[in-house]
Write a structure and sequence with these properties.
Blueprint (H helix, E strand, L loop, with lengths): L7 H13 L9 H8 L3 H4 L6 H13 L11 H18 L3 H6 L6 H16 L4 H33 L4 H16 L3 H12 L2 H15 L7
């Protein structure tokens, strides 16, 4: 396909589609994107100089989907809505959490998002340092949980398909040890995790973090 018949936005959308069909971010490649678009891989290099460049563009495209909450709401409600929005977007696009980790927030859309989060906290009485630290803390929780849940789903699929007997043994061992050693809190933790959706787990954790945030005037 000639260069004139393909566009940068088309490549980005095809890249997101390609990534969604990969088992991990490591499996993503320019050649796979070219296959999705039915073009020669060399055509993509007219628009993106490297794989990293296309990953950056994909991360920017995803970040652009994040909407900001009403500024008239109290700061906790604003952050709750904003990070719930982030969670929804991250879980809609497979491997987004890994994508964000593997790219640099060097674009206007990503920097503006980070700036807005800190601004909400500063307006609530937190110092710039506290606002930045709070943003990072919530982001670490969000990213880590999304990656963890994604891996857990992969394990569950393999176990249910009976592809991994060893994994099934490990899960059985969890229940056996917690029962035999009377690890009551771990038993409750496992039951809770199995009974709550990914979104419920995220909302519960976010609520705890926000509840613990207190502006320190000396910080």
């Amino acid at each position: 396909m000639p260069k004139s018949k393909i566009s940068r936005p088309q490549i980005i959308q095809a890249s997101l589609k390609t990534l969604a069909n990969c088992q991990s971010l490591d499996q993503f490649s320019m050649r796979k994107v070219a296959t999705t678009l039915q073009i020669d891989a060399s055509t993509i290099y007219w628009y993106f100089e490297s794989k990293q460049a296309i990953l950056q563009a994909m991360a920017d495209e995803i970040a652009a989907q994040i909407s900001f909450p009403d500024a008239n709401l109290d700061w906790k409600t604003q952050l709750t809505q904003l990070f719930n929005n982030l969670f929804d977007v991250y879980t809609t696009h497979p491997h987004t959490a890994e994508l964000m980790i593997e790219t640099i927030p060097s674009s206007e859309v990503r920097l503006a998002l980070m700036n807005h989060i800190i601004e909400i906290l500063v307006d609530a009485g937190f110092s710039e340092t506290q606002g930045s630290a709070a943003m990072s803390t919530i982001d670490f929780f969000l990213t880590g949980l999304v990656i963890d849940l994604s891996k857990e789903r992969q394990f569950r699929t393999e176990i249910n398909d009976k592809q991994a007997a060893y994994l099934h043994e490990q899960v059985t061992q969890i229940h056996q040890i917690t029962h035999d050693e009377h690890l009551v809190h771990m038993q409750n933790s496992v039951k809770s995790r199995n009974s709550e959706s990914a979104k419920q787990q995220f909302e519960a954790g976010l609520k705890l973090i926000l509840k613990g945030l207190v502006a320190d005037k000396e910080g």
